[in-house]
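Working notes for the structural subgroup meeting. M.R. asked for a predicted model of this chain before we commit to crystallization trials. I am recording the input and output together here so anyone reviewing the notebook later can reproduce the run.

Input as submitted:
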Amino acid sequence: MEKSRSTSANKRRRRRRRRVRGQSNTVFALLFAVLFIVVVLVAITVFFKVSRINIVGQTRYSAAEIRDASGIKTGDNLFIINKFSCIQKISGAFVYLDTVKMDRILPDTIVITVAECIPEAAVSMKGKYWLIEKKGKLLEEAGQEAASKYPVVYGIEVEEAAPGTIIDPEKEQRIKPLFEILNSARTNGILNDIVSINMEKLSDLSLQYSDRFSVELGLSEELDRKIRFLKAVLEKLGASDRGVIDLTDTKEVRFRPDYAGG
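Returned structure, recorded in token form:
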């Protein structure tokens, strides 16, 4: 009986020792984790300071202007910098920037990569011309001479035009078919010779190609197909041909020559 009590007491003591060791191990693990986090935070704060801000990409804006707009300065902590805030600052400051990307390069470098918007057309609104890029963003007001370098678009309206305004396709339904025409013309290599595009009626779209052809597109449907037909027709017509190219029926292309113009 006495031996049994002694054995039970020994077991209880061993269990207590195991619990104490387990608790000690847990405490040591927590202390180590806290110490590790403190060391990492100190290392980040002390060692990872920005010493170089590299700008990659050719734009009309200087590297110094882009650096200043980012708000990043040498000596700033590499990891505490709010990347998305910096990108928004740069994009908001320069309307001609299409994309802005920022990367952290250890141990001390920020790389900002930028690409510039390219004007696709000039939209005529209320007696003024606005250059517009392929995503529907207005870039700047332009004079007639500058606007004439691009297809001039009639029929698109914006309530408050300003540099950086992005035309909402829900409010201006003509913007989608306009970019279908522009994108297809660019893909087919005929964009540069389009003088103007009339978007005033979605049921009666048309464009002027060079000084030789009026092109009737009709409804704002199958525009890519119509532009491809236009390219095929242009390749078959002679250098002296002038007239009207009727693409309103995608099953049959009709050409009405202008003999007086020839």
